[in-house]
């Protein structure tokens, strides 16, 4: 933005202005704002350079990132359940043989951490908060 404020500064200013005006954000507006922010995060995760890409002609991780509503004020963004192993790429994993919840044994190699979810979120805070602030302003007629 040309005014030199970051997205966080803009969000803080917006919240202060709303308080001064006596405006409150209803659940519908909050959900729309959270969804807008989540869409930005999802897009940034899907295009992050560290997201694993299959070297074979298989499905790619970027095609299995989803947004899921947890509660009225919380949304999770991450891999669909059958792509749980993406967490190993994010955090790293020590190789070994493990027993799954289905009773079968699974062997995993050592996997070095190559984060893509956390950096996608952390390095795009301004854009995420701008997207959310735009929804709030529009919904409140500001």
Distance between the termini: 18 Å
Give the overall pLDDT as a whole number.
82
Would you report the number of β strands?
A: 4
Helix content: 40-55%
Q: How would a crystallographer describe the biggest sheet? A: 2 strands, antiparallel
Structural class call reads: alpha+beta
Keywords:
5 helices, single chain, alpha+beta, two-stranded antiparallel ribbon, 15% strand, elongated, disordered N terminus, 142 residues
Task: Characterise the protein shown here.
It is a single chain. This protein has helices at residues 7-21, 27-46, 86-91, 117-122, 125-140, and strands spanning 65-71, 74-79, 96-99, 105-108. It is an alpha+beta fold. It has a two-stranded antiparallel ribbon with strand order 1-2. It has a two-stranded antiparallel ribbon with strand order 3-4. A hairpin with a 5-residue loop joins β3 and β4 (105-108).
């Amino acid at each position: 933005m040309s005014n030199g404020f970051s997205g966080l500064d803009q969000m803080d200013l917006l919240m202060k202005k709303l308080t001064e005006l006596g405006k409150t954000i209803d659940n519908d507006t909050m959900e729309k704002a959270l969804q807008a922010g989540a869409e930005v995060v999802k897009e940034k995760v899907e295009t992050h350079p560290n997201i694993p890409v299959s070297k074979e002609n298989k499905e790619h991780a970027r095609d299995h990132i989803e947004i899921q509503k947890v509660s009225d004020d919380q949304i999770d963004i991450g891999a669909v359940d059958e792509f749980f192993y993406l967490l190993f790429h994010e955090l790293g994993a020590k190789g070994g043989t493990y027993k799954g919840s289905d009773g079968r044994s699974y062997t995993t190699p050592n996997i070095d951490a190559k984060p893509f979810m956390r950096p996608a979120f952390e390095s795009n805070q301004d854009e995420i908060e701008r997207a959310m602030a735009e929804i709030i302003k529009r919904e409140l007629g500001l």
